[in-house]
Amino acid sequence: MVDSVPPQEFEAAGEGHTSAARADRRVYRTADFDYDLPDDLIALRPARRRDSSRLLAVDRLSGALEDRRFADLGALARPGDALVLNDTRVFPARLTGRKPTGARAEILLLRPRDDSGGAAVWEAIVRPGGKLKPGRRVRIADDLDVIVLDSLPGGGRLVRLEGPGDPWALIERHGHVPLPPYIERPDDAEDRERYQTVYARHRGSVAAPTAGLHFTPELLAELEQGGVRVARLTLHVGVGTFRPVAAERPDAHRLHPEAFEIGDDTVALLNDVRASGGRVWAVGTTVCRSLESAVDPEGHFVAHRGETDLFIYPPYRFRGVDCLVTNFHLPRSSLLMLVAAFAGHGLTLHAYRHAIRERYRFYSYGDAMVVV
Hints:
alpha/beta, 18 strands, six-stranded antiparallel β-sheet, 26% strand, ten-stranded mixed β-sheet
């Protein structure tokens, strides 16, 4: 099925692009990124096969929409394009246990704080937050306790894992997959595999880079055989990226910094693709933010290792990304705002209404969209 954006909405569909002649001057409010989603369109389980997910192809210049399958991605890419993947690996960051009183408690590990490079001391979110104050202990298992060391700004905690052996081994043994809260079921063995990309390498994320969940080794091989070059970077995804924007206006919101790294090999490949006239495809908003954090004003990529708190919302002029593969995101989220900055506010919401009407599956385990 092919659909086109209504003329009255297409006026906004060129905003914020590298190729756009006009800039979007509108001052957006957070409410401008709201929409209504029927509960039964929230995907609670992944598709039977990763690349069997549906794919809504959006042409940001013409406004055309086309319903496809994710396995069709190779028909949209060109020889000489670069596909950039986030090779972070999700770890079982959710620890559940009991306080000495017997009451249940939960610890969501965010990132390690050990100066030695180990994994015994962590920044974390705890529940119930009002009860787990410094000095409190939570028994996770016979061989693992969590001690609350200190309070952190924003309601977080500094905690220490106590148990024999390697803390990472204890986390892998006793931790649960940190599924998003809208997936209202316990995690299971399937989630250990499917809430993870097939190319995940570097452990450190508490949420999956969900646009990458649709790729199979076969699809990646097909793309490379067709002349698409595949590059990798690493951004460890934190929970702040997925939280709704609470401020009345996006420009009052701040993202928590996330660690990312883009190496010399990836930079050389991307700069070569750009010099040859190829397009840079960001697989997911995490890759998009990383690339935009590692490109200079002339569009040349530079190697980087550090953190980014880049928050992209309309209007924004992209320098590093030409095409975007992404999932369907929560209302009022920073992720939806990034997509709207890339595709245009009017076109993005038109595409979302189309997806709802055609009963696409939404959010982390849902279907995908590509903006070309």
